[in-house]
Amino acid sequence: MPEPENSEVVLRAQRGDRKAVEALVRRYLRPAYLVALSVVRVPAEAEDVAQEAVAMAMQRLEDCRDPARFSGWLMTNVRNRGLNRLAAAKVRQRHVDAVLPDEAQDSDAARVAVRQTLLAALETLTPQQREVVLLHDLESWTHAEIAESLGLSEVNSRQVLSVARRTLRAKLNELEGPTHG
Amino acid sequence: MDDDRIDFSALDPARQPQRWEALLQRTVEASVPQPEAWWLSLGKMRLAVVGLGAVALLAWVPLLLDAPVSGSTDPALALVQYSHAGDLTALLESTDGY
Question: Which of A27, A62, A96 is the last residue of a domain?
Answer without folding.
Answer: A96
